[in-house]
Amino acid sequence: MLKKVLTLVLISTLVLGMVSVASAQVKIDYWHYLSGVNAEIHEAKVAEFNELHPDIHVEVLYTGNQFATRDKLMTSVAGGQPPHVALMDQFWPPLMVSTGALVPIREFVDPEVYFADYNQISLDTVTIDGEQWTMPFSMSNQILFYNKDMFREVGLDPEKPPATWDELVEYGLKLTRDVDGDGKTDEWGINFTTRANVGAVYGFITFLWQAGGQIYNDDFTAAAFNNEAAVEAVNFWIDLAHKHKILTLSPPQEGFEVGRIAMQVSSTSSIAQTAAKVDFDFGVAPLPAHKEKVTGVGGSSMGIFRTTPEQEAAAWTFVEWMANEQNNLEWSMATGYTPLRKSVLNSPEYAQYLEENPYIQVVIEQAEYARARPNLVSYADVSRVLGIAVEEALFANIDPQQTLDNAVLEANGYIW
Amino acid sequence: MVRKWKRLGHEQTKTALLALLPSFVVFSVFTIYPIFHSLYLSFFNVSLVATTKRYVGFGNYTTLLNNPTFRRAITNTLHYTMGVVPVGIFLALVIAVLLNNRLRFLGFFRSAFFTPVITSMVAVSLVWTWMLEPNYGLINSLLSKIGITGPGWLTDPKWAMTSVIILSIWKNLGYNMVIFLAGLQDIPAEVYESAQIDGATSIQSFFRITIPMIKPTLGFATIMSIMGSMKVFGQIYVMTGGGPANSTMVVVYYLYQQAFEFYRTGYASAVAWILFAVILVFTIIQMRFFRTDY
Amino acid sequence: MNSHKLRTTISRSIIYIVLLTLAVSMLLPFAWMLLSSLKEENEVFTYEMTWMPSKITFSGYHRALTQQPFLLYGLNSVLVSVIITTAQVVTAVLAGYAFARLEFPGRNIVFMMYLSAMMIPAQATIIPAFILIRKLGLLNSYRGLTLPFLATPFGAFLMRQFFLSMPKSLEEAAIIDGCSRAQVLLRIVLPLTKPALATLGLFSFMTAWNDFMWPMIITTTANMRTLQVGLALLSTDIYPDWPMMMAASVMATLPVILAFLSAQKQFIQSLAFTGVKF
Description:
The structure holds 3 protein chains of 3 kinds.
Chain A: H1 2-24, E1 26-32, H2 36-52, E2 56-62, H3 66-78, E3 85-89, H4 93-99, H5 111-114, H6 120-124, E4 127-128, E5 131-132, E6 135-147, H7 148-153, H8 165-175, E7 188-191, H9 200-210, H10 228-243, E8 261-267, H11 271-277, E9 282-285, E10 295-304, H12 309-322, H13 325-335, H14 342-345, H15 348-356, H16 358-367, E11 370-371, H17 379-396, H18 400-412
Helix pairs in contact in A: 2-13, 9-10, 9-17, 10-17, 17-18
Chain B: H1 2-41, E1 44-46, E2 53-55, H2 59-66, H3 68-99, H4 106-118, H5 121-131, H6 138-145, H7 157-185, H8 189-197, H9 202-213, H10 215-230, H11 234-239, H12 251-260, H13 265-290
Antiparallel strand pairs in B: 1-2
Helix pairs in contact in B: 1-13, 3-7, 3-10, 4-7, 10-13, 12-13
Chain C: H1 3-37, H2 59-66, H3 70-101, H4 107-119, H5 122-135, H6 142-146, H7 153-164, H8 169-176, H9 181-192, H10 194-210, H11 213-218, H12 227-234, H13 242-262, H14 264-274
C-alpha cells in the first residue's frame, strides 16, 4: 500500500515537474525569407538551438520571399503583433526603427565591446545614425558568374574573365550566338536583373558607383542620380541591350544554369546553390570595373522586436547563438556568405575552406572594396523611384537624362 | 379592428428590425463607417505604422494630383478601360447573337464561355503569366511555329498592358455574353421573321433590330464594365506588379501599394476617395439612364 | 433540298464552327494549366514546346502539398468560405424577407441605403476596415477573415427580388391560421425559395473562395493564409516552379468549377435576372 502511495507521489511529482518545465519554456516566433538549400541549413540550425536550450523554443516560419516577408513584417508591426525575431534584408531596419518596434543591441550588451570582432563593412550594414539596431547575420556581395565551357567554345580564355566594362562588351559580343541557325539569338553574353519590381536597382547602384556616381548628395539631403556618371551607367545598360544586343530583356528562366547565358551578375550567396546545380565548368570572377572598382554589399540581419523583457532576453539568447563564432563559420562555409567576424575570417578552418573553394577566394578579395547602401528611411522610396526610372529608360531605349531628372524630383519628395 | 392592425403593424416593425439587424450591423461597420472614416483620414498625414497624425487639409489631394506615378496610374487605368470595354462588349455581343440561334449544345457553349468568369483571378492570372512566358510559354511557341517572334509579353513595357487587357477580356467575356443572351431572348422572333420576309440580310437585321432592341442591356453592360475596369487589381498584382517601368500601374494597385507597402494611410485614403467619387458618378449615370425597376 | 434550306444549313455550320473555335480557345488556358501541372519540373523548359507531358507525373501536386502548405491553405479556404456562405444566406434571407413582406416605417429609406452601400467599391473602404480589424485585435484570425463578409447588401437585394416574385396568398393564409412570422418563413417561404438559396449560396461561396485582397492584407502567417493568398505569393518567385504552380492553380480552381457545373443553368439564369456584376 505504502509502495503504491509512494509511486503515485513520485509519478505526480514527475508530471508536475514536467509541467512546470514546460510552462517555464519561453516561446519565440522567428520569421525568415530564405529558400532552397540555404533555408534547409538555416532551419536545421534553429532546431539545433532548440535542442541545446530546453528553456527556449524557437518556432521558425518561412514567410515568403523578401518582398512578401517585408510586407508581412510591416503589417504585423502595424498590428502590434510582430514576431519576436525576424531576419531582415539590409534596407528594412531604417523603416522598422522609425516605427519604434525594434530593440537596439545596446539593451543587451555593450556594442563597443561586443562588435569589436566584426568587420567594419558588416557593421555598416546595420548602423543607423550611429546605433546598431540589429545583429548582422549574413553578408554577400555582387559577383560575376561565368560559364567556362561557353568561353572555350568561342575561343576565349576561360581563366581570363572580363575585368572592365569594355571587355565585358567585347566578350559578350563573342558569346551571344544563334546556335540553331533559325535567325534568332538563343545564347546571350550577359544577364542581370533588369526588372524594377524584382530588385534591379540593387544591381544598378553598383554600376552607378562604378561609373563614379552617387545615389544621394554628400550630406544626404537630396537625390543625386542624374549627373553625368548616372547617365553613363544607364546608357551602358541600354547599349548592352539595344546596341550590342548581348543582354536580353526577356531572359530564359534559369538561363545561366541551363547554359543559355554565358555571364551573369549574381550574389555570392548563391554560389553554393549554383555550383551544385550546373553541370558545366563553372567560374566566378570579380565584377568588371569601370572608373571605380567597387561591388555592392547585400546582407541580412536579425532584429529583435519589443515584446516582454523575458521574451526579449530569450530572443537575444537565440540571436546571439545564431551569430556566434562557430555558427558564423559553419554558415559561411555552407553557403558562401562572407564571414562577419574577423576571428572567423582568420580561423584555420576558414583558411582551409578557402583553399578547397577557390570561388570564395574571389568573394573575400572583393570584400575589400565592397560598399554598403546608405541606411536611411528614405532609401526604400528613393531606390524604388530610381529603379523604375532605369527600367523605363532601358526598355524604351531613350536618352536617360530627362527620365533621371524627373526621378530625382520625385525622389526628393521623399527626403526630408 | 383598427387597433388589431396597429398592433400587427407594431409587431411587424419589431420583427423587421430584428431581421434587418445582423446585415445592418455588418455593413454599417464594414462599409458605411469605413467610407466616412476614409474621407476623414484623407485629410491627415498619417502612417499605418506610426502613431503620429498631422492635419494637412487638402494636402494629400494636391500632392497626389501632382505625383507623376499617380498620373501615370490614371492614364493607364483609362488605357486599360478603353482596351477592355469596347472589344469585350463587342465580342460578347457577337457570341451572344450567334448563340441565340436555337443551337444544340447551348449548355456546353455557355459553360465554356462562362467558366473563366467563375474561376479565381489569381489562378487564371498565373496560368496566363505562364502562357505568356517569352521563352517557353504557349503563346510564343505557337507564334514561332508560324514564323513570328513573339514579344516579351509581360516584360516589355510596350506589351504589358496589352497582355493584361487580353487576359481581362477573356476572363469577363462570359459575363457580358450571358447578360446579352438574356436581353436577346426578350426580342420576339416575329420581328426577325417579318424583317426576313422584307428581304433584310442577317447583317442588316443585326444593326436595324438587334442593336436598337437591346440598347438598354448594352448600356447597362457598358457602364458595369467601365466600373469594373476602374477597380482592376488582381491581374496586375499577379502578372506585373505595376511594371515594367510603371506601364501597368493602375489606380487600385497604386492605392494598395501606398497603403499596404508604404503605409501612407492618409495619402492612400485620398486615392480611395478619388476612386470612390469617379465610381459614384458612373453609378448615378447608370441609375439615371439604365435603371431597372427596383 | 431547296436553296434556302441549303443556305440555312451552310450558315448554321459556319456558326457552329466559329463558336466551337471560340469555345476551344476559351478553354485552352485551362487545358494548358492541367497539362503543365502533370509535367516534370524541368520538362517545361524545352526549346520545342510540347503539349503532352512525356510521362504523366503528380510530382507538381506533391511539391505543392509538401514544399508549400497548400493543404492547409485549402482547409482555410474551405472553412472561411463555408462560414461566409452560411452567414450570408441567413442574413440575406432575413433582410430580404423584411424588405419584401414586412411593413415598417422608413422601409424605403433603409432599402435605398442598402442599395447605395452596394455601389461603394470595397477598395475604397479597405484601409479603415483594416484599421478597425487591427483595433479589434483580429488580424491574422478566422474572425478577421470572415467578419466583414457576413452580410452583403447584394444578398438582401437578391432575396427581396425572389420573395417579391412569389405569391403572397399562402403566407397570408398561414398567418390567419395563427403561424408566427418565423414559422411562416421557415415552413412555407423557404422551401419555395430553394433555387434562389442555391444561387445565392453558390455566388457567395464563389466570391469568398476567390477573394484575395482582404485575406492578403490581414493574414501575416502561413497557417492563416487562404489558397488565393498562397497562390499570389507564389507569383512573386523569381524562379517559378511552373508545374507546381499550375498544380496549385488546379487545386484552387477545381472546387468552384465543379460547383458551377453542377448548378450552371440555374446560376446563369438568376445572374441575368439580377444583372449584378461581381
